[in-house]
Amino acid sequence: MNFFTTVISLTAAALLSGGHPSSPADTLKSVRVSEDGTVTFSIYAPEAETVELGGYVAGENPHSEPARSADGVWSVSVPGLGPGVYRYHFIVDGHKVLDPEDAEDYSRSSLFRLEPSGDEFFAFKPVPHGSMSVRYYQSSVLGMSRRLHVWTPAGYEKSGKKLPVLYLIHGGLEDDSFWPSVGCAGEILDNLLAEGKMKPMIVVMPDGTLTPEQLAGLGASLPSDGFYLTAEIPFFTEDLVSSIIPFIEDSYRVKEGPGNRAVAGLSMGGAETLDLLLKYPEAFRYAAVLSSGWFPDERKRLEEDRTLSSAAPAWNRSLKLLLMTDGGDGDMAAENSKATRRLFDKEGIRYEGVSRPGCGHTYVTWRQDLRDFAQRLFK
To answer: What's the pLDDT score for residue 49?
Structure first.
């Protein structure tokens, strides 16, 4: 009997008996934080042969070997986590399983918050809160309806004022729900605005991901190695310029023109940001490439065909701020980021580089990036 059969059997027993079968799951607390800061994740899976912890919290942090108790509860401990919001799930006998005790499914994984003081810059505080809206638009480029999230600041509805716009892009294998959830974008922006640290603005979080099936339907050439993420980039950047920006400028009170637009993206979204700057160098005045950069083959091509050299004057003329960040040596994109910066140096492109040692390729890095970048916009 496997984990899923066990769940079905327990449910059936409950229905037949008219009650709920007693099990350790009744009182199980699936996420526990000890006094020393160690976080322990647990799941009741008495018939499982293997259980692993998945998601960012496991992939980017050392953790214990899964241990099974006598009553069928499996546990994995992660020491030394800093304050933050983390995605996690379990892998039970090879199957991805969301936390059965968690009430919310944030698209791909469960979500928990670690806010020891409650005063963290990304915490939900007693300040005026803006609106995080889910909107749909028709993409003329992709030929389909697409979703995005839009944050508007507290008081926007009644103010009558036009505001500038930041386009904030997530990473690979994610979607537009990631910045509002694990990225804490709304909380960060609410807090900054309440503290008078940033200008009022609208922040648009689009969906930069396309499935292999959607890409194939658009005639994209998918790589044989299965790494299709880079195939999304040209389609998304065209969609942002041709569909998303017009939709936002038609639907919201916004200040139009390059001086009132900023763009930032993490990981794959950073590659999409770079592509936007190459193809539309006059469209934005502020840009941030978070934990990203061009891969070696792309850097070689850009040098050989002089694409970046040709774009350099327009970048220096148009961009008031170009920010390049990484999460230190533990960030898997750090070398690409640094190599891209060296290419900028060679071409005389002005930028600022920021490294956050020990933060890695995670939202620990990117939440800080958003906090710092937002304070420098539209001033």
So the answer is: 95
